Amino acid sequence: MGTGERDQEAHVSEGTTGAGEAGGTTGAAAAGDRGTPTPSPRTLAEALRSRPDASLAALLRARPDLLTPVPNDLTQLATRAGTRASVVRALERLDRFALQTAQALAVAPDPAPYPVLLALLAGDEGDTAVESALPGALAGLREQALVWGSDERLRLVRTARELLAPSPTHPSPTGLGPTVAEATAGMSPGRVQEILRAAGLPATHDPVSAVAALTSLFTDRARMSALLDTAPPEALAVLDRLVWGPPYGEVSADPAPPVRWLRDHGLLLPTSARTVVLPREVALHLRAGRAHRTPEPVAPAVAPAKEYRPQVVDSAAAGQALTALTMVEDLLAEWNEGGPAVLRAGGLSVRDLKRAAAALDTTEQAAAFWLELAYAAGLLASDGEADERYAPTPAYDGWLDLPPAERWSRLAAAWLTATRTPGLVGGQDARARTLAALGPDLDRSPAPEVRHRVLALLARLPEGTAPDPKTLLARLRWEHPARTGPEDLRPKLAQWTLTEAELLGVTGRGALSAHGRELLATEGSRAGTTTTPLLGLAAAAALAPHLPEPVDHVLLQADLTAVAPGPLRRPLAATLNVLADIESKGGATVYRFTPASVRRALDAGQAASDLHAFLAAHSTTPVPQPLSYLIDDVARRHGHLRVGAASAYVRCDDDALLDEIVADKRSAGLRLRRLAPTVLAAQADPAALLEGLRAMGYAPAAESAEGDVVITRADTRRTPPRTAPAPVPEGPPLPDETLLGAAVRAIRAGDEAATVVRKEAPHTAPAEPGGLPRTTAAETLATVQAAVMTGSALWIGYVNADGAASQRVIAPVRVEGGFVTAYDHTADEVRTYPLHRITGVAELADDPA
Question: Gly residues bias: where (predicted)?
Fold first, then answer.
């Protein structure tokens, strides 16, 4: 349907079939107030017009797509609310019972009284749960402008009826088929009369009355039961196969006697030469009036799986939170000097992902999660160079300086709001291309909403209670059953959320932790805003007491190892990571000292005395003699050989040591030759020469052109300043209360300007319906000047500098210099208008103020 047709539709009276789509009701026909009949609105726009401002704001909040751009008036809002895209989006956000209610209205007469709708959902025998839940479901549909009208004349928006009503190409979820009137639309009048005679009904003079008589028979429970009592048992078996859908069946050219009996009596109606259909009225009789086999008025409960003491949950979650911090730090430490290259199509290669998983000692899927988490938090990005590589961002250094609890809250807040979906890594997109970690195609708009819903369901359980995942997924399916895409990703997102929340430490042993509850409360209170460093402070405060205090000492052991009895303070950890290699992690981290690690510290500019002093200051045990010997031995040999740039050279005061190097077969690849008793020249570059000599067991030092020792500290590599990736929203953003209030006022004012009663001035060209008034320049000036003197309001047509025409209600205050200054009721402010842009004016019958 085009826009023009929709505009006309919003003004059609209720007597026209399917008129006036998209509205709510006034609230007079409240769910619980059904005793007094209330006047039903005739059009959708009229239904919206009678709503209070709070109800209009609730509509715009529930369907924010209607707000972009702000409608000019309520007629335009009604038209927009009936468009296919908007209705589909609204239907997708209904829970299962609200959707079942809309589906029942789609197969009910239009308009349908409330008792008819109740009977379709509760059946002939009634259902107390349905009777209790239906008013709330109907109120929700009205609030979203999918249903409008009083309880005596309920109407489903036409577009929603088209989407939900059964058709041969689009079966209804109810399993119902067409009505008798729809199924016999192309049938010959003689055939209809034959069906009447076979059913024992008198003949009529026209097809319309014949169809009405047949419909009356099928909807009369007593007469219909009597007719079915005469049916062969085999015929009843055929009906049983079709009653819950699909309602269509194939028949041969010469059908069996049971099928022939059903067809002759109109219980099966032909739709083609080989196809028959079970009429809706017959199916409803066989179903005892139910539109759905299993109405679901009550959301399924989330069953508890296990219960723990809250302290146990918080401790387990805190331990995992500490592990999460370690994982992110270790990952970015691996890439501190520059990470792997970015693929041409974006993202990380499979080989580099495997290397990251091996470095973290975890699975590839878990490694992808930590990578995506660091990326979403703005700690990791590509450097943007020609040879593009991944590296930590400058924000990473600031993040390292925060207390552990605040570092965790930054990660958790980024995870909760990110649309990045690590669970997709390794899968394939629509073009059968593998989805890479950190790639451009991992954003999924529903991800933040699903994470919030999962955590909100966990928060409703008693503290320390872990849910049964199957019941949790069943609850989520009830809350969002309708999806138009080929694959609904929400169940997978829910499962990934449970896994990721446990990895991150939001949950412990499957139950929501205390800091997880604080995180959810903070995120819920700021829905629609951007992540800032101030968010998550309450979660950080709840987590901090459960984290171990950083320690400033280690335990040195005689086997050249050091044991850190807890997380180390940042300066101590940084120095120790250079001086020793991490051998194992866990509750206590074990470091091992090796010649290579000590040489690494010496290359970074440390002297042997500095290393001895450092260990003595931070060890609660005496420095073992083997460790002191190791440091002194490496330091004694460190720098004895000097490598510089010729191609490269080696010089040493000990010519015997140079003789030993030349004689060593392992030096053949360096192609060394003696230039002087204390100098060797090489065909390799200085870096390769250094590496080769170290591989042979020596401890050479690089020197500058002036002969000074070059200190080769590990250079940290950082990207230029980068912001965290913005989430990709699902549809328009949720409006805040300020915007909602302003939008409602603007729509009300525009509607007042469009519908206000006005007087026709003499010699004034009447405006077309919905058009602008037309007056001459002299008449316009005279009318405006008179309004200034009397203080009355005017209805004007105005064309702005861009040529856009609008109509407004103004109260002129002053006219001078070709301009009129007036209070604009439409904009709710004082404005100045050039008189030459006013197309016409008309006096109002009543002052809108």
Answer: 17-26
